[in-house]
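User: Here's a protein and a ligand (iron/sulfur cluster). What would the complex look like?
Assistant: Let me lay out the input and then the predicted complex.
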Amino acid sequence: MTSSASSAQALVARFGDLLLRYQAAIRRLQWVMVVIYACLLTVPLLLPRPTHTDYVWNNVARFAQFVFWGVWWPFIILATALVGRFWCGILCPEGALSEFASQRGAGRAIPGWMKWSGWPVVSFVSTTVYGQLTSIYQYPKPAALLLGGSTFAAIIIGARYGKAKRVWCRFLCPVNGVFGTVSKIAPLHFRVDPDGWRAGAQQQGRSNAVNCAPLIPIKTMQGASACHMCGRCSGYRGAIRLSWRNPARDIVHGSGRLASTWETVLIVPVLLGLVPAALHWSDSGLFRMIRLWLVERCLDLHLAWPLSLRLPWWILTDYPLENDVMTSVDAGALLVLLSVSVAAATIIFGIPLATCTMILRMRGRFLHHLAQALIPLGSACLFSGLLSLTVSQLRSDGVIIPYSDLFRGGIVLAAAGWSAALVFQIGALCDTRLATRMCATLIMAVPITSFSVAWIAAFLS
Ligand code: SF4
């Protein structure tokens, strides 16, 4: 290791130690975040709806909407990709409240149903779809219901299960799976040195145990996916340090090798299918076509109610004063569009993944390892899609961010190139012949390129 590399390692290791030393200050910061979060959720509920003369800078409701959807979410995703899950361990108000409740709660054992590995997918999909049906990005009531409901559930789970743990964050949080997936490409992680661990045990005897709130078996921790980067284990037994790493390492040589079916489901049909459709459906020509087709079928069948039935705002968007009402037909068209997008992503990426697995003469779990190569693309799709909320909200207030589309397109293309390179690197683990690896990479490059071009075209249109 060069001296500049080792001093960079020493610097981040020191930062990890600082996190450990200033846990009390972090706790206070978390309470500040709780107050800000509560204000952003509740204050807009008490204010009249913004008019066309209200802007982000002169109206609290517009400001809260912009902070939540234009800043908070896109930049948490970006930060998770750049530095790991520091958001979860240091700033997240929901995690802090859940752990606070758990410290004083019943401390029951975690039930088996909660450990089902499909929850990260099911909870993310259901909250994403529900958020679109109720127009969560536009109105404070569904935002308060969904985010406030999630926080309430986090507190209840904390109060019942575990002792000073974040059981909610580990098993049920709707964004846990996405954050865990995106953090695999972060160049920072808490590295566990097995030799150092053994030596530390011999030298120090039995050390005080670390309270790892997200319940990670620290000694055998693989990658940074589940780690909340809270810093509490920094320096433990002299074996755990915050370290730089090659951002491809976890996917190619680390936890990527142990990837499961649910992780592939989260990456392919969800991040590359559901997310782009959910973030872009209102501008989609396909949505309009599906809606028109459904309207014509209703007229053919003399069914008037699906065209006019209004449901409460907590089921479907219902703001007649804003001229914004989602009928049953609109909701049906949206659900069909989301299903089509999920099915298309599954086919477009699933067939090449299966073909590459065969070409590389592998079976079973290897397909899931190969699917991990798509994490950069899925992360870029999510970030660029959320960034469109930032851009469109500012644009509606007359603020144009120069080169924002170019920036988003550049990120998607760079991520696409990285995903193709990861396919090549993963292929090297099982077939050293250059021609075979090239062939597999070219096969995967087809859906990666097609998706990237289509996604860039969608947000440029
Ligand atoms: S392994 Fe646990 S204790 Fe250590 S930094 Fe990660 S979340 Fe915190």
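Summary: The longest helix spans residues 328-359.
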